[in-house]
Design goal:
Blueprint lengths: L14 H6 L11 H5 L10 H25 L1 H13 L2 H6 L3 H24 L2 H7 L16 H16 L7 H14 L14 H7 L7 H14 L47 H4 L3 H14 L10 H8 L1 E2 L15 E2 L1 H10 L4 H13 L1 H9 L4 H12 L6 H14 L3 H6 L4 E3 L11 E3 H18 L4 H15 L7 H34 L8 H26 L4 H9 L14 H21 L5 H14 L22 H15 L19
Parallel strand pairs: 1-2
Antiparallel strand pairs: 3-4
Helix pairs in contact: 3-6, 4-6, 4-8, 6-9, 8-9, 8-11, 9-13, 11-13, 11-15, 13-16, 13-28, 15-18, 16-17, 16-19, 18-19, 18-21, 19-22, 21-22, 21-23, 22-24, 23-24, 23-25, 24-26, 25-27, 26-27
C-alpha cells in the first residue's frame, strides 16, 4: 500500500500483504521484507481495536494459510524476525530505533497470523506450517520442528534479556502477547489439554534453562507497572504537518511503505480504563498465570509452577536449594507493595492466592509484615462489593482470608491495628474500628448476602471457617461487630424455625395424600443446623478463650438471650450450649443484683467486673477450632478455565471470536 493510504478498509488490497499471502515464494533475503516491515501505527490497545484489524485482514490470513504449504512464506517471515532479534540487545543499548522497529513489526505480523492459524488448524498442522520451505513446497525435512521451537525460545530470550526501555516496551509487550497466543490452544478445547506440542517445547529442551529468569522477569514486569510510553516512542518523532497520520521515516528506510494507518488516530488517547494500568504488567501477569497452571508433563512437574512456589526474598542469605532447580530471588518488599496496590483485578488476587498457598517463603514474609492492613483491606473491599464481583474473584479473596487466619499471630495482630474512617463501608459510619472487627463485619455480611442470594454452601463453609479460626483470638470486638455476630445467629435461628415448620406441614400433608412426593426438608434442616452449630462453636470459642477481652459480645449475648433458649435442649446443640447458657445465667444474675434501669456504660462495667470474677474452670473446654484450606484433588479443572477466562476478558489487544471458544461458556467469565 502506498504511503498516502491510512484506512483499515484498504488493507485487503495492500500490495505487500497480497504478495506475502500470494502464490510466489519469497526468500528470507529478499528486499521485500524491508518494505513490508517499514510501517508504523499505534499498536491496538483494546480487543475492539484488534477486532477491527482482524476483520480487515482475515482474507489475507486465510490466503496465507492456504498457500503457505507451497510458498513457505510464514517460515521465511519467522526467519527474518529471528535474524533481526540477534542484535536487539545491542540495538537497545545503542538506541537503534530502526532495528527494534522492524523487529517489532515482524513479530506483530507473526502474532496476527498465529492467532488466525491457531483458531483454525490443529497443532500438528501449525507445526507443519513452520516447516514448509520455498524450494520444495509441501515437503519438510529433518529440521521440521526446529523453527517453531526456535521462535518460542527466541521470544523467551527477548523477554528476559532485552532491557525494558521506552523504545523496547512495544516489542517486549508483543513478545509476551505472542507467547499467550501460542498457548491459546486451550481456548478451543473443552477438555483440559494435558499434552501439547507447544507445552512440550516450553517444559523441556531449549526453553527449560530460561524458566526461572522468565518467571522472575514476568513478576518484575508486574511489580514495576511500567506505563506504556507515548505513541511513536519506539519509532520516530511524530510529524505535526496538518495533523496528518504519517510518522517521519528516517533516511535509509525503504521507500515502499505498505501502510501507515491508525486505529482511532496515531497518538490518540487510550481508553480511560487503560490509562490507569500497564499493558505490559497486565499481559505479563496473565502469561505467568497461564504458565503456572500448565498441567505437569508425564515425566516431569511443571517447572514454571516449581519456580513460583520456591522463589525467595533477596534479603534471604541462605543458599538456594538444589532440590528446587528453578528457584530464584526477588525483592519481597516490592512484590508485597504491588500485590497490595493491584487487588482490583482478578489476576492479581489469583497471584496472591497462589503465592500464599504454594510459596511458604512468601506466606511467612506476608504474615510477618507490620502493615498487614495494606493487604487485607483491598481483600475485604472485594468481599464487601460482592454484588459487583464475579464468583471466582470472591472465592479467591475468601480463600486468601482463610489461609491468613490459619496463623494465630495474624489473628492476634489484626485486633491491634486500629483503622480510621472506612469510607467504603456504607451500612454504618465507622470512625474507628480494629482491622479484626472490620474483617468480622465483612465476612458476616458475605454470609448474609449468600443466604439471601446465591445460597452457595461452599461460600458459607469458608466464611465460617475463617471466623472459627479467628474466634479464640477475638479481642476488644467493636460493639457493631458483636451485634452482627448475634444478628447472624438470629437470622439462622429464624431460618431454622421456618424450615422446621415447612417440614412439619409437609409431613402432615403427606398423611392425606400418599401420591405427592415430599420435598427434601430433612436435607435443608441438616444444612442449617450445621451452620447454627458452627456459629455456636464460634461464640463458645470466644467466650472460653477471651471472655474478659470482649464485653461487647457478652452485652450483645445478654441483649438477645431469648434467641438461645430453644437450643438448650436440642440434641444437636446441648453440649455446646452449656458454656453459653452458663455465661448468660452468670451475667444475668449479676445485672439483676445491680438493680433496674442500668445505663449501657454501667452494664458494660458490670460485665467487665464479672468477667474477672467468673471462674475459668466452670467453662467446659472444647477442641480448638482450626480449619485449614485444602485444594481440591484436580485443581486444574477449576484454575485453567478461570485463568483463560481472565485472558479472554482482560488481555490487552487480544480478540477471539466468542463463537470459537470451547473451554468455557461466555457467560461464565
Amino acid at each position: 500500500m502506498g504511503a498516502n493510504s491510512s484506512s483499515i478498509s484498504e488493507l485487503p488490497d495492500n500490495e505487500y500483504l497480497k504478495k506475502l499471502s500470494g502464490t510466489e515464494p519469497i526468500s528470507e533475503n529478499d528486499p521485500f521484507w524491508n518494505q513490508l516491515l517499514s510501517f508504523s501505527f499505534s499498536t491496538p490497545t483494546s480487543s475492539a481495536d484488534l477486532k477491527l484489524l482482524e476483520e480487515a485482514t482475515i482474507s489475507i490470513c486465510t490466503s496465507l494459510v492456504e498457500k503457505n504449504p507451497r510458498t513457505g512464506n510464514l517460515g521465511a517471515l519467522v526467519k527474518v524476525f529471528l535474524s533481526r532479534t540477534k542484535e536487539l540487545k545491542i540495538s537497545a543499548e545503542c538506541q537503534n530505533h530502526l532495528f527494534i522497529w522492524q523487529a517489532h513489526n515482524a513479530l506483530f505480523i507473526i502474532c496476527c497470523l498465529l492467532k488466525v492459524l491457531i483458531s483454525r488448524v490443529s497443532e500438528e498442522e501449525l507445526q507443519l506450517h513452520f516447516t514448509y520451505e520455498e524450494k520444495t513446497p509441501g515437503l519438510y525435512g529433518a529440521e521440521r520442528e526446529d523453527l517453531l521451537e526456535e521462535l518460542l525460545c527466541c521470544l523467551i530470550q527477548l523477554i528476559v534479556e532485552i532491557p525494558l526501555l521506552d523504545i523496547t516496551y512495544s516489542i517486549s509487550l508483543e513478545a509476551v502477547t505472542t507467547l499467550l497466543v501460542f498457548l491459546s490452544w486451550q481456548l478451543f478445547h473443552k477438555e483440559i489439554l494435558r499434552e501439547s506440542i507447544v507445552h512440550r517445547y516450553l517444559l523441556h529442551g531449549r526453553c527449560l534453562p530460561y524458566t526461572s529468569r522468565l518467571v522472575k522477569t514476568l513478576l518484575y514486569n508486574f511489580i514495576r507497572q511500567e506505563r506504556s510510553p507515548p505513541p511513536g516512542t519506539h519509532v520516530f518523532q511524530q510529524q505535526t504537518d496538518g495533523g496528518g497520520l504519517l510518522y517521519g521515516i528516517a533516511s535509509g528506510v525503504a521507500t515502499g511503505l505498505w501502510t501507515v494507518f491508525t486505529l482511532g488516530g496515531v497518538g490518540s488517547r487510550a481508553a480511560p480504563q487503560l490509562e490507569q494500568c500497564s499493558p505490559l504488567a497486565n499481559q505479563s501477569l496473565l502469561l505467568l498465570l497461564v504458565l503456572a497452571n500448565l498441567t505437569d508433563a508425564p515425566d516431569a512437574p511443571n517447572p514454571y509452577r516449581q519456580a513460583i512456589t520456591s522463589f525467595k526474598n533477596t534479603q534471604d542469605s541462605s543458599a538456594l536449594s538444589s532440590s528446587h532447580p528453578h528457584t530464584f530471588q526477588i525483592n519481597f518488599n516490592s512484590l508485597y507493595t504491588a500485590l497490595c496496590e493491584q487487588q482490583r483485578s482478578d489476576q492479581a488476587t489469583l497471584l496472591l492466592y497462589m503465592l500464599l498457598h504454594q510459596n511458604g517463603n512468601v506466606r511467612t514474609y506476608v504474615l510477618a509484615r507490620t502493615d498487614i492492613e495494606n493487604l487485607v483491606l483491598p481483600i475485604l473491599e472485594i468481599l464487601y462489593h460482592v454484588e459487583e464481583r464475579n464468583s471466582h474473584h470472591v472465592y479467591m479473596a475468601l480463600i486468601i482470608l482463610l489461609i491468613l487466619t490459619e496463623d494465630d499471630g495474624f489473628n492476634r495482630s489484626i485486633h491491634e491495628v486500629i483503622l480510621k474512617n472506612i469510607t467504603w463501608y456504607a451500612e454504618r459510619v465507622l470512625t474507628e474500628i480494629s482491622l479484626g472487627s472490620l474483617l468480622i463485619l465483612v465476612v458476616i455480611r458475605t454470609i448474609q448476602y449468600n443466604m439471601t442470594r446465591t445460597r452457595d454452601k461452599y461460600l458459607h463453609t469458608n466464611c465460617l471457617a475463617a471466623l472459627a479460626n479467628m474466634s479464640a483470638q477475638f479481642r476488644t470486638l467493636h460493639q457493631y461487630a458483636a451485634q452482627r455476630i448475634i444478628s447472624l445467629f438470629s437470622l439462622l435461628s429464624k431460618k431454622h424455625n421456618k424450615v422446621l415448620e415447612q417440614a412439619t406441614q409437609s409431613l402432615r400433608g403427606s398423611l392425606d395424600s400418599s401420591d405427592s412426593p415430599l420435598p427434601d426438608y430433612a436435607q435443608d434442616l441438616n444444612v442449617i443446623e450445621e451452620v447454627i452449630r458452627m456459629m455456636l462453636e464460634i461464640i463458645n470459642s470466644c467466650l472460653t478463650n477471651s471472655l474478659h477481652h470482649n464485653p461487647n459480645l457478652v452485652y450483645a449475648l445478654l441483649y438477645k438471650r431469648e434467641l438461645f433458649e430453644q437450643f438448650r435442649t436440642h440434641p444437636s446443640f446441648q453440649d455446646i450450649m452449656q458454656n453459653i447458657d452458663l455465661v448468660i445465667s452468670f451475667f444475668s444474675s449479676r445485672l439483676e443484683h445491680a438493680g433496674a434501669e442500668l445505663s449501657v456504660e454501667r452494664v458494660l462495667e458490670i460485665i467487665k467486673q464479672g468477667a474477672v470474677a467468673l471462674p475459668k474452670d466452670r467453662l467446659r473446654k472444647f477442641p480448638e477450632l482450626k480449619f485449614k484450606y485444602v485444594e481440591e484433588e484436580q485443581p486444574e479443572e477449576f484454575f485453567i478455565p478461570y485463568v483463560w477466562s481472565l485472558v479472554y476478558h482482560s488481555a490487552v489487544a487480544l480478540y477471539w471470536n466468542p463463537h470459537d471458544i470451547q473451554l468455557f461458556t461466555m457467560d461464565s467469565g
